[in-house]
Amino acid sequence: MIEIRHLSKSFDGRPVLRDVSLEVREGETLAIIGRSGSGKSVLLKHFIGLLVPDAGEVRVDGERLADLPYADLRRVRRKFGVLFQGGALFDSMSALQNVEFPLRTFSDASEEEIEARAMACLEMVELPDAAHKKPAELSGGMQKRVALARAIAVEPKYILYDEPTSGLDPETSNTIDELINRLNHEINATGVVITHDIHSVLNIADRVAFIHEGRLHWTGSVADLHTTTDPELSAFVRANEYQIGSVPNPLP
Amino acid sequence: MPLTAVPLVGQTTRLVEGFGRYSLLLARAFNLPRDLKLKLYLQNLRVQMVRVGVDSIPIVALATAFSGGVSAVQALYQRQDPAFPLPTSIVGTFTEEAVLLELGTLVTAFVLCGRVGARIAAELGTMRVTEQIDALEAMGVNSRSYLIVPRVLAGVLMFPVLYVIAASVGMLAGALVAWNSDAITVAAYWSGARAFFRPYSVVFGLIKSLVFGFTITSVSCYKGYYTRGGAEGVGTSTTQATVLSCVFVLLADYVCAVVLL
Prior knowledge:
heterodimer, A: globular, B: mainly alpha
């Protein structure tokens, strides 16, 4: 389980997150939604200790990240797979080498086993043909799928998705959503999805946390989203509906 | 405190702070993780040695060929003064001292500041702004060690090799000038070069190569690793890495001369 308690973070004196507390339960997919600049990605980076909170704490399976020496922090980070917003693929490597990288770095498997596992991950994201292409030769959607394959290569306990569908056309977004759903079940991972795409939330999340102006404004199940009377959340959801045109299970 | 002193204090503070961050970054990078895969690091080191060393040979050879040639031409020019008659062999001596003690290392260093320093800073800077360094950290990789150690080691290991090539090419270029000149024979050129040759000059050049190799790569890694912003940030880091490397090479050159000669 991941626990965030009273977390606050400022940059250059400007508060980005204020007293945020939430938990991610084992096996669930939690969607953290909010407007651009509301602090969602900053919150995500605290989950793996890439940012240190000014106040409050982050605990992963009971271990307080701030107390851990760097070597132990790296050990905790290996429980995570992260899909970064832009993919963050290593551009000097091919798609296959990108997926092989975490396996090569941390496992004692043979070359054949590493390549077989990496190819299996690329097949899961339906991109075995792109194995020998460099990231620059792939479209944005394909890059995200390769990044997803890399994130699941070591079968992590937790997978963090930072804006997995941003900048993608609706069809590719649906494909990514389906992949996330399928992968979460196949490797039985706990997921945290940062997004402002309500369509995605309805497709993949079990629970939703709404960040507004740096504060955790609302939490509830996806079903609760349909009945919320919170004005900020309703406005956010309706703005999404207007952008998308239609969403499954349209809200009242 | 007078108002004019305020910016100076701010700049000094930033300089000291920057040096502290630089030292800390290197200390953390060279504190190698116990679980590192040596094979992975060696592969990375081999790639960097090719990029830093082997790929730099043509431009280093070109730059030092002209430096050695110009030294020989200037020595010939000095000989033309009738008030100070000098033996023809002085051309070889002058070129040998200039190339082995100074030009072989300094010209190579400036070439590497532009070619290697800028490339390292741009590469790491781009990795930073595209979250590739975050991705390494998120996987549990010690990004400082993984990215910085092979690059700095490649600089330290390959610069002496480049120095030997640079010095050899510089001396040969001087010989070419002598061969093309009516005022001196090639035999006299080599005779002059041998007459005052001290093996310590080569040792001095090799020691400076190690220092310059470390300075250029470590400063460039520092600027690249801590890049902020997007494309503009990468541009700024690259420029700063090149300029700072040149400045620190000149400083290191002076310190080496004072301490070692």
